Amino acid sequence: MRIVLVGPPGAGKGTQAALLAERLSIPHISTGDLFRANISQGTELGEQVKSILSEGGLVPDEVTVAMAADRMARPDAAGGFLLDGFPRNIAQAKALDELLAEGGHALDAVLDLEIPEDEVVRRIAGRRTCVKDSSHTFHVQNKPPRAPGVCDVCGGELQQRDDDREETVRKRLAIYHEETEPIIGYYREQGLVSTIPAVAPVVEVTRRAIEALPARGRDS
């Protein structure tokens, strides 16, 4: 199965991508992970990305596509993969189609995680992160700490990260609507899109996603 997972920030793409990839026995390919891996390994593409990001620039489509192409060409992706964060715009979607066609392949499905904008804001703006260990995260409603503002694990102070503030979240949503959301229409014209209501328990969203896949994917 060759799948693209798309949805706004806060829709749970990372969580669902990991669960679906494990269920389907295919690699989860995340753009963010690709950037970090190439930078840490000192690859030529990684050096390009590091230089661009250090100057506050945006990684060009051709660099992102090249990294994704390199990852998809590895042996563990021969039978399929789940893409998370790529393609991010129409140009990248067209480049992906061309890459797959060169190998005699095509996408099997595009899963669109649907979530109301107010729920995105509630989910992200409610996060609180430990200043001592950023892996310790809480939520003012969904997972409140035992003591307000104090990490249950290490006693560190909990803070709201700048990129979790409501105004920042709404800016991220605006960018998503402008740049990424159009790929849903692009893939819908190809008959590939299944919309998955994502305001539900994690296991329920995973079940809905599996059921939306072509029959051979559900049987994996």
From TrEMBL:
Alphabetical GO biological process terms: AMP salvage
Keyword ATP-binding: yes
Region (NMP): 30-59
Record: residues binding ATP: G10, A11, G12, K13, G14, T15, R127, T137, F138, A200
Binding of AMP, residues: T31, R36, G57, L58, V59, G85, F86, P87, R88, Q92, R161, R172
Compartments where located: Cytoplasm
Pathway as given in its UniProt record: Purine metabolism; AMP biosynthesis via salvage pathway; AMP from ADP: step 1/1
Residues making up the signal peptide according to the UniProt record: none
PROSITE patterns cross-referenced by the UniProt entry: ADENYLATE_KINASE
Principal subcellular localization: cytoplasm
Protein name: Adenylate kinase
Species of origin: Streptomyces radicis
Encoding gene per record: adk
